[in-house]
Input
Amino acid sequence: MGIDPKIRFATIFDMNGKVLFSAHREGVENLLSSEESQKSLQLAINAWKSRNEVSDKIGKGKYALVEYEKLKRITMPLDSEHILYITTDVEADHAPIIYRALRLKNDALHSPEGMP
Output
């Protein structure tokens, strides 16, 4: 959440949809119900599973960005079993957010403690 003030929501979940960490910016209204949020996470999981089917030919995906009328959604695999899911305000400059998230991921992967 500290990467950018335009981040609305961030969560880490596994490939089964189990949420391991979640943070919501104070004062930001949820646009989806909890059931709709869970469905959105499942759609992200399915999309990454589909991308992984061709990764041996085109390489592993680094991130995916979808812009909607009311927000942007960034997803990125943290490792083979975990995904980072970030939503931002639509006017957010997503490139620095993605860059910083990838840096944090890289730093965590190479730290002695590994990923949290």
About this structure: The longest helix spans residues 34-52. Residues 12 and 84 are 5 Å apart (CA to CA). The mean pLDDT is 91.
